[in-house]
């Protein structure tokens, strides 16, 4: 029953929350430096909650441009010896492996990215997929759930920290702008909004047909 609840909730899609940190705004030329993904889960009552999070520091791809202003903003030193960075391909393969595992668990046909300002994160993930030649991504290539829009609708806020505080979610701005922290907070926010909408009667579970 739990699997059916999840599968029916998002029309067969499995939502996974993703955040990236980058060396600029251009997905084609600026490096992808961090990626994190938080899995979503559902309990027997149909309440969404945060599951496992996976995170990687990523080596800048060859020929990429590192914008000083972007590095100053997110505080990332791509050359730091303790970063333990991996290639884009290794990071994406491991992230996708976990996504497929949870997607299969809930019998969903495809995963869908959830992100704050999702067009930005999707552009960088899709660019990395193209660069690495990964043939099978579990993520829908152009459909996403944007928590910026959802928070604007439900909470009257579009900035992540302000939306979280409006939802009663603690947010430490000193930890912000790391893919790991921002992903986890975005996931908490997404689950809160989905569950709140359900509690208000905005979405009702399909009723099973009575046996004849």
Q: Give the N-to-C terminal Cα separation.
A: 20 Å
The topology string of helices and strands comes to: HEEEHHEHEHHH
Characterize the overall form: globular
**Structure classification:** alpha/beta
Largest sheet properties = 5 strands, mixed
The helix content, as a percent range, equals: 40-55%
**Strand proportion:** 15-25%
Q: Radius of gyration, Cα only, in angstroms?
A: 18 Å
Strand order of the largest sheet: 3-2-1-4-5
- Give the oligomer, counting copies of the same chain as homo and different chains as hetero: single chain
Low-confidence segments, given as residue ranges, are none
Average pLDDT: 94
Quick overview of this protein structure:
This protein is α/β, with parallel strands linked by helices.
What do you see in this structure?
The structure is a single chain. This protein has 212 residues and is an alpha/beta fold. Helices cover 40% and strands 21% of the residues. It has seven helices and five strands. It has helices at residues 2-9, 68-74, 88-105, 118-132, 147-155, 160-166, 179-199, and strands at 13-22, 32-42, 48-57, 110-115, 139-146. It has a five-stranded mixed beta sheet with strand order 3-2-1-4-5, sandwiched between helices. 35% of the residues are buried.
Features:
212 residues; alpha/beta; 5-stranded mixed sheet; 7 helices; 21% strand; globular
SSE blueprint and pairings:
Elements lengths: L1 H8 L3 E10 L9 E11 L5 E10 L10 H7 L13 H18 L4 E6 L2 H15 L6 E8 H9 L4 H7 L12 H21 L13
Parallel strand pairs: 1-4, 4-5
Antiparallel strand pairs: 1-2, 2-3
